[in-house]
Amino acid sequence: SLVCFVTGAQILCTVLLIKPGAWSRSLARILRKLDVEKFSVVGMKHINLEPDVALGLLSSEVKQDPAVLEAHCTYLTSGTALVLCLQRPNAVKKLIDLLGPEDPKLAQALDPFLWRAQYGVSTVQNGFYGSKSYQIAVRDMKLFFPEGLCCAECQTLEEEEV
């Protein structure tokens, strides 16, 4: 809308899931990176993903190959993940840009400072899941934070019933 254009980028939320194993050894560094990038953490919880929830986070490409699908689901349900709801202007795009490609080797080739280049070891154990669009972020917020978030009420979240 014109109001958003005039006032600048809209403050949005997105979801970052730090996969099992990645957050336990790197949480302080990851939180520092989020702070440097001006993200506010407005929700955080440990979670052991159920297989159906893990399946819902996977892309359609991953779901096409049964062996790859099994590897992803097994890994995502193998331990405790940390789910963060993050807020900042253009949160969804900014987070996806910071994470980089799903394949850490490709991320490393593009930019060694991409988060998956730094924390990922394979396409399965790539360190992070990030909501790929605002619509998916809203779905993820409702899924992982049904009790609500600790951010100041904003019209966007009210409209999305988060």
The end-to-end span amounts to: 21 Å
- Helix-strand topology string: HEHEHHHEHHHEHH
Q: What would the principal axes of the Cα set say about the shape?
A: globular
Poorly predicted ranges: 1-6
> Tell me about the biggest sheet?
4 strands, antiparallel
Give the mean pLDDT: 88
Count of alpha and pi helical runs = 10
- Name of the CATH superfamily of the domain at 11-91 and 130-148: Nucleoside diphosphate kinase-like domain
Using only C-alpha atoms, the radius of gyration works out to 16 Å
- Bin the strand percentage: 15-25%
CATH domain class of the domain at 11-91 and 130-148:
Alpha Beta
- Helix-strand makeup class: alpha+beta
Write the layout of secondary structure elements.
Blueprint: H1 2-7, E1 11-18, H2 22-36, E2 40-47, H3 51-57, H4 60-63, H5 66-76, E3 81-89, H6 91-99, H7 104-110, H8 115-119, E4 128-130, H9 134-144, H10 155-159
Antiparallel strand pairs: 1-3, 1-4, 2-3
